[in-house]
Every structure is written in structure tokens, then in C-alpha cells.
Design a protein that fits this description.
Layout (H helix, E strand, L loop, with lengths): L1 H55 L5 H9 L3 H6 L18 E3 H4 L4 E2 L21 E3 H15 L4 E6 L4 H10 L21 E7 L29 H16 L2 E3 L6 E4 L13
Parallel strand pairs: 2-4
Antiparallel strand pairs: 1-3, 4-5, 5-7, 6-7
Helix pairs in contact: 5-7
């Protein structure tokens, strides 16, 4: 009888151990599953919490934010989808359509020299005073504007679309193919609506110092700046050339202010802006 009681007690303990081990196994499995779930969920919660903390904190100064932005690659703001752009895609227009530049880049400066008599001819060459370009060209110009604003500069347009009749007028006054395209041999890129003559201005609208003024018919106007002593002028011209080139324009070697869209369009023989 005594032996039976001892055996019964041993069997009970054995069953308890098995149940305990089984329970431990279930718990271990549950912990493993929970660990996997937490590994997927916690990073997202942490990021959200971090963003909320930074947004709500008043201890982050403007200078700290500036430092963080400067740590980002310079091309980030120019190339990524987060960059501020003046032109949003307009489904009404094709790239070849003519548009008024300031309708899409409101903060660009425009002073069309040939709409006045303050040019090398002393005559008004065309009678409209706003800049017009192909829509595809304007989109590229907008990117250049946004990039230059990071350097404290903006674009000022001296000449954009130029009617064919205006080109003939210029050629009659200055028949020099180095500075004026011969309309008898082909059309000026200005008459295609894809070329701009531009300079840089500051936030106050004042022009930056450059190698020469507009339509300077000397070697100082070309892109070989070895004859320019003013280092600031050279630096400004190189900045303009670098940004415009990166945004899809081809610089003309004979004039630091002259840039043509890398995409070519047909000459607008009969087009006159409103």
C-alpha cells in the first residue's frame, strides 16, 4: 500500500513537470512571436514620436534648422521631389506652347532691353515688354531660379522670344554673325522661343556685378574670363553658367548672358506676343 502511494505521488510529480515544461514552451513561443511583432511596429512608432517631439519642441532654434539643411547634399533641393518649384505641371500646355514667363515664375525679374531704346542700336526693336518662351523652356528656367535662390540670387531676363522681324532689324543695324544671327541664313534661337539673355539680381532687385554689361561686343563678354580682373564678377558668371547648364541650358561661348534650351524648337515665323 505504501509503495502504491509512493508510485502515485511520483506519477503526479511527473505529470506536473510535463505540464510545466509544456507551459514554458507555450510561453517561449508567445514571447518569440511578440518579439517579431514589436520589431516591425516599434520603429514606426519611434519615428512618429520623434517627428512629433521635434515639431512640438520650442527648443529647436532657426539656426539649428539651418545647420541641418546645410548638412544635406546641395543637389537635394534642386533635384528631389521636395524642392520648391515655381512651375506646377500645366496640363493645358504642351512644351512647345508659348507662355508668358511671369505667369509661371512670378518672382523673376524682366527688363527687355530691346523693348526700349536703351540698347546698342538706340532704337526700339520690338514693342512688347514682357518675356515669352516655350513652356518646356520655362519649366527649366523655373528650376534654375529655385536653385539660384539658395545662393541669394534671382534671374533677370534681358531678352527672351524675339520675333523674326526684330531679328532682321538687328541684322540690318549690326551685320556681325558673332553677335547677331544672320536671319538670311537661318533663324535665331531667340526666334524659336527657347533662348534667354539673363543676369543675376539680389533679393533687392539690384544686379550682381558681372564681367560686362549686356551686348558688350568685346572679348570681355565671352566665357574665357582670363581677362576679367574682378573675381566676384567671374564667380557670379560661373555660378549662373553652372546652374543654367545643370537645369538643361546650353551656354553660348561668346556671351556670358546667353543660354539656349537643350531642346530645339521650330522658329515661330509669324508669332507675335499679345
Amino acid at each position: 500500500m505504501k509503495n502504491e502511494m509512493m508510485n502515485s505521488e511520483i506519477n503526479k510529480k511527473s505529470v506536473s513537470r510535463k505540464r510545466l515544461l509544456l507551459a514554458i514552451g507555450y510561453i517561449a513561443a508567445a514571447v518569440a512571436i511578440l518579439a517579431v511583432v514589436l520589431a516591425q511596429v516599434l520603429p514606426r512608432k519611434t519615428n512618429a514620436a520623434t517627428v512629433e517631439t521635434i515639431s512640438a519642441s520650442e527648443s529647436v532654434s532657426e539656426s539649428q534648422v539651418t545647420v541641418r539643411r546645410r548638412d544635406v547634399s546641395p543637389n537635394y533641393y534642386a533635384d528631389s521631389s521636395t524642392a520648391s518649384t515655381a512651375v506646377k505641371e500645366d496640363v493645358k500646355h504642351k512644351n512647345s506652347d508659348f507662355v508668358r514667363v511671369r505667369d509661371y515664375i512670378p518672382d523673376i525679374e524682366v527688363e527687355l532691353i530691346y523693348a526700349t531704346d536703351r540698347n546698342f542700336t538706340g532704337q526700339v526693336i520690338y514693342d512688347f515688354d514682357d518675356a515669352w518662351l516655350r513652356y518646356g523652356t520655362v519649366k527649366k528656367l523655373a528650376k534654375a531660379q529655385e536653385t539660384l535662390k539658395q545662393h541669394g540670387a534671382r534671374i533677370k531676363i534681358w531678352d527672351a522670344f524675339r520675333p523674326v522681324s526684330a531679328q532682321f532689324k538687328l541684322w540690318k543695324i549690326c551685320p556681325n554673325p558673332v553677335y547677331v544671327s544672320n536671319p538670311n541664313k537661318g533663324y535665331s534661337s531667340h526666334s524659336r522661343g527657347s533662348t534667354v539673355d539673363v543676369t543675376l539680381v539680389g533679393e533687392d532687385g539690384n544686379e550682381f556685378v558681372m564681367p560686362t554689361g549686356f551686348d558688350d561686343f568685346s572679348r570681355r563678354a565671352d566665357r574665357n574670363y582670363s581677362d576679367i580682373k574682378d573675381k566676384t564678377a567671374v564667380s557670379n558668371a560661373k555660378l549662373l553658367e553652372k546652374v543654367m547648364s545643370e537645369c538643361g541650358f546650353k551656354p553660348y561661348s561668346g556671351e556670358w548672358w546667353h543660354f539656349s534650351d537643350s531642346v530645339s524648337y521650330e522658329a515661330a515665323k509669324d508669332y507675335i506676343p499679345d
